[in-house]
Amino acid sequence: MATINSTTFGGDTLEIIAFRLHDQEFCVKTTTIREIRGWAPSTPIPHAPADVIGVMNLRGSVIPIIDLAYKLGMKSTVANERSAIVVAEVHNMVIGMLVDRVSDILTIPSSQVQPVPEVSASFDKTFSEGIIANENGMICFLNLAKMFKGSDLEDLAA
Question: Entry's InterPro entries (predicted)?
């Protein structure tokens, strides 16, 4: 079974934050995460992209809130009391990502991250760094820098 070279992740271990969207588990590197907040309603923005729920005030800074499930091609998340906002910094911009719930913060060996298999020629796997198989199932490792291109975030900040 092929593994991703640990130099891709810069070390022997990775610290990740795992979260759920619908019935699937995803994770990102903790180094991109600023904080985790409970769900609070956001203010909608007219003519915003479909994946932008709205904006919220984060200690005096207005940040966009992204429906991460919708961004990944899933049905939109319906926020509830268990939902969370994962606040991340991507391309020097701060964004909030709506998730169903945060599952865990883990330290894993970087060798545990396996490449995303080729599904079809039209399959776009650029949002994913790889797949982590553990005793509880599979976790899709997301690449926020590729998901949110710098120009997309500049449009939100405008």
Answer: CheW, CheW-like_dom_sf, CheW-lke_dom
Count of domains for the chain: 1
Q: Residue 100 sits in a domain of what CATH number?
A: 2.40.50.180
Higher pLDDT, 120 or 108: 108
Residues making up the chain, counted from first to last: 158
Tell me which residue of 39, 41, 53, 42 sits closest to 81, measured CA to CA: 39
In the chain, the DSSP E strands lie at 13-21, 24-29, 33-38, 52-58, 61-67, 84-90, 93-99, 101-109, 113-114, 128-134, 137-142
Higher pLDDT, 77 or 126: 77
Residue 80 lies in a domain: yes
φ/ψ of 16, rounded to 5, equals: -130, 155
Domain encompassing residue 63: 13-155
- Rounded Cα distance between 65 and 85, Å, is 8
Residue pair 10/113 in contact (Cβ under 8 Å)? The answer is: no
Choose among 69, 71, 28, 75: nearest CA to 48. 71
Q: pLDDT tens-digit profile of 5-21?
A: 434 455 689 999 999 99
